[in-house]
Amino acid sequence: MPDAPTPRRTRASTAATPKPTIPLNARGPITAPHHSWFTSPARSHSNYGQGKELPLHLIQLILEYLDDAGDLARITRTSRLFYYMALPRLYEEVTLRSYSEIRYVDGRPEGYGNGSPFAMGLNTLVSRTFAEYVQMFRVIGDWREHDVDDYSKGRVPDNSMMLQIAIRAAMDRMKNLRAFAWELNTKPLQTVYEGLMHKPSLTSLTLRCPARRIPRPTTVIPPLPNLQTLIVYDIDPLCYPDNISLLLLASKKLENLKLHWSPRMRENAEESVNLLNYFGRCLTAKHTIPLRRMALYNLYTRNQGEGFEHVSDHSVIEEITIINCMGSSDPMTVFLDDTWRVNANHPIPHNLKMMRCDQTDKEHVTMLARFRGLERLYLISRSRSSKPSSTAVTPITPSASTTPATNGNGSSANGTPVTEHQCKSLAGDYLAVIQSNHRTMRHLLLSDQWRLSDDTVYKICQTCPHLEQLGCAWAVPPLESLRQIIALLPKLYAIRFLMRPNSELAEKFESIDMEMHQFALGTELWRPEYKNLRYFGFGDKFVFRLGDVVYPPKGKENLPPGQENSMIARRVGPVRRLERVGWEAVRHIEIWGMDSTEFEARFP
Questions:
Q1: Phi (first) and psi of residue 162, to 5 degrees
Q2: CB-based burial, 417-435: b 16+ in 10 Å, e otherwise
Q3: What's this model's pTM, rounded to 2 decimal places?
Q4: Most buried residue among 53, 107, 195, 534 by CB atoms closer than 10 A?
């Protein structure tokens, strides 16, 4: 009987054989594929076995620390792998700036041989697939409008209409758009707003209103249900701004609101602002906006008791900024500003944590006494603007009720006499309410008109032990007193001695050589009491960043008997490293950065 043939192993039986599984802890890290490294212009290893591959998650971690657009652009040209990993970061935030005049680089206009950078940027977003990565889109600058006379004939000029269509086409390709900012000198039209309506991911909107009195189409901005931040600036009722009342009513998630009116109305005492144009729909529907942060700039209008204090929910609001608004005693504006005092019936903001204002008066002290738990208070003393040509700059109206600066004759800028008793009385009221109701204070910036004594500062630090930043007008105390005061504040890392410009004290400090300032501070701030201190400032011109302590080499501190506290001993002894920095280097420190009336189209 013949032997039966041996059956063949089929593919099905082979595939059915289970493969051994590799435990997760035995697997190697996910690395970059070998072929991607050969596309890089960087030098390769002579021996392929010597090349060490970085895991992808480490590469991604490194790329997250790059925030400069130029660096990201160069990284994308390094290799194919870096191109795909860095490209989303490169186009995550896009800003296109337009200029009213042609700019030249090396004798040639920008965009030589092609369009302007603004136009080519729009072309890239419309014609390429990069718009899918955009999460923040901002257009800013001056758009050159041609045929402006067409507005008076009832028609939008063609180049302005083409701008709206191009931006709408770019926005339609942005699937992940979260923030949009229109900061051109011409206003957006219905075409752009309709594009925003189809962006459910949009949470932030910034609008710049036109500043020219040219008849333009006015749009009722449609609802954006998921909007959380709204910033509108350069509002002028005579320049055809768009209507935001429906947007405020329909934005149920709105938490941050910043409104900036043109300073023209307050400068000219022009009563053209009507709050019903902005909050009328909310008052009619009895809708309360759940704002957490609110900022008002240059508001000049009459309070007729319509109930605007109930537009926002005061039980949830945490931060308030009021710059150059109701409260001035300028003879030109006092009549309208007094209506806010007469109709003052504001609810108590129990959860308020931050307040920033440029007015100091008795009404403000009364308001601070009605609640507890304030953590940050910034009293701006004067205007400090680095952009005098910007329409968004907020000027300061002279005020007598804020103990204004006195000139050589002892009077304020608007001619109102200011006595020393009035200044001390108001300062005492503020300090009393801070020490009684707001012992949770972390950031405190007082007026530079209030010269405080050592005992007063000592009591403030004793009652507010959580202070991290302190700025006040304080004559330089004895070193022993300074050490005792600093020892009361273990969390303090920034201190600023305020000085009024052109004052006797400021001129005295400026007359001393800079090396003497550094020597005096360096030989004092090395002590253990100042170990947590990182920033030290006098006025506006002397700001120092503190470093580590340098100790003298051992065996070289031999001094003659009786000279342990002499100047020679201070030169030999330990010294704290100091670096003088400019204003920009400390803008992130609130007692410097918040001490300005300059408007910024963003929330800090």
A1: -65, -35
A2: ebeeeebeebbebbbebbe
A3: 0.82
A4: 195
